[in-house]
Design goal:
Layout: H1 10-13, E1 28-31, E2 36-39, E3 48-51, E4 55-58, H2 64-75, E5 80-81, E6 87-91, E7 94-96, E8 101-103, H3 114-121, E9 134-140, E10 148-151, E11 158-167, E12 171-176, E13 182-187, E14 208-211, E15 216-221, E16 226-229, H4 232-235, E17 238-241, E18 250-258, H5 269-279
Parallel strand pairs: 1-15
Antiparallel strand pairs: 1-2, 2-3, 3-13, 4-16, 5-6, 6-9, 7-8, 9-18, 10-17, 11-16, 11-18, 12-15, 12-17, 13-14
C-alpha cells in the first residue's frame, strides 16, 4: 500500500485489526436548501442550527452515461497506491509544499475527458473565472479501508475554490473545526426559509454558544454531484471522509485553481501563466 506515518489501511493493518475503531457521528448535517447546519435528531444539538457558508452543491452535474465513460477512461491508466487505502491519478505539477517549490517537468496538462467537465463548470455562478491547474483522481474502496483524514488543502499554491466531482456512489464528507472561537447556535427555523425566529445571527436571546471543537458537520454528496468548498468551508473547516462511510467504490475528481500568488500581479505570475498554459491543453497523462 502507499501508507506513511500514522496513516494506515486494511492492507497494512492486517486481519487482526480489520475492524475500524468506532468513530463518533457528526452532530450536525448541512442543508443545501437553507445553507444551515442543522443539529441531528439524536445529538445534543437537536433543534439547533447555525449558518454554514462556503458550500455549493449541484446534483446530477453529469449524466450516468458520462459518468460511465469518464470512469472507463480513468481505468485505462494505472492507479498508483496512496495513503489510507486510496489510489490516485495526478494531473498536475510536481510540488514540494514544505519548501514551496513547483516543477513543471513531467506535467503535460489535464486529461482530454476533463475538457467538457471544465466547460460545464462555467454554468455555475460560484465558478466564474475558475481555471483549474491541477486534477487529482482518488479511488476509494471498502476492501482497502479507504479514508482521508481531516485536513486543509494547501493554500500557498492552491486558490480559494476546491471543486470535486463525486462518482460511482453517494458519500458524506465530515467537516470539523479546530478553532477556539465559539459557534453561535439558534433554534432551527420551522419555516424552511433558513431565517431564524430570533432575527439574524448576532442578536436575540434564543442564541446558544458552543466551542467549535464540539461541532462536526456532515455534508451529504450525491453520486454525480459537483461540490465546491470556498470561504469558511475552505479555510476554517477541515474536511474528511471516515473509513466507515466508504461502503462501495467511490471515485472523486478534484480540481484546484491557483492562489493569488500565482495570478496577475502576484509574485509568481509568470510561473502561474506557464502552469495554466500546460493544464488547459487537455493532453495530459497521469504523473
Amino acid at each position: 500500500c502507499g501508507c506513511k506515518g500514522i496513516r494506515s489501511c486494511l492492507l497494512c493493518e492486517g486481519p487482526a485489526q480489520a475492524a475500524p475503531p468506532p468513530q463518533g457521528e457528526d452532530n450536525f448535517t448541512y442543508c443545501p436548501a437553507t445553507g444551515l447546519a442543522k443539529g441531528n435528531e439524536h445529538s445534543e444539538f437537536a433543534g439547533w442550527a447555525f449558518p454554514f457558508p462556503g458550500v455549493f452543491l449541484m446534483e446530477e452535474f453529469i449524466s450516468q452515461d458520462e459518468e460511465s465513460e469518464i470512469v472507463e477512461l480513468m481505468d485505462r491508466d494505472d492507479w498508483k497506491p496512496s495513503q489510507s487505502g486510496r489510489k490516485k491519478q495526478d494531473y498536475g505539477p510536481k510540488v514540494n509544499f514544505k519548501k514551496q517549490r513547483v516543477k513543471t517537468g513531467s506535467f503535460t496538462g489535464l486529461p482530454s475527458f476533463s475538457k467538457k467537465i471544465v466547460a460545464q463548470m462555467k454554468a455555475c455562478p460560484v465558478l466564474e473565472g475558475f481555471l483549474p491547474v491541477e486534477q487529482c483522481n482518488l479511488d476509494y474502496r471498502p476492501e482497502r479501508g479507504s479514508a482521508i483524514d481531516p485536513h486543509f488543502d494547501d493554500w500557498w499554491l492552491w486558490g480559494e475554490r476546491l471543486v470535486s466531482l463525486n462518482l460511482l456512489s453517494d458519500t458524506v464528507l465530515s467537516m470539523s473545526c479546530d478553532s477556539k472561537d465559539p459557534i453561535q447556535l439558534f433554534p432551527t427555523p420551522s419555516t424552511g426559509t433558513g431565517s431564524f425566529p430570533a432575527g439574524p445571527p448576532g442578536g436575540g436571546s434564543a442564541a446558544r454558544r458552543v466551542p467549535s471543537a464540539r461541532v462536526s458537520v456532515s455534508i451529504p454528496v450525491a453520486r454525480r454531484a459537483l461540490l465546491v468548498l470556498r470561504g469558511e468551508a475552505r479555510y476554517r473547516w477541515k474536511h474528511a471522509l471516515p473509513r466507515a462511510r466508504v461502503r462501495q467504490r467511490r471515485v472523486c475528481v478534484t480540481f484546484r485553481e491557483l492562489s493569488a500568488e500565482f495570478g496577475p500581479g502576484g509574485g509568481q505570475e509568470q510561473l502561474g501563466r506557464e502552469l495554466l498554459e500546460i493544464a488547459l491543453t487537455f493532453r495530459g497523462r497521469p504523473v
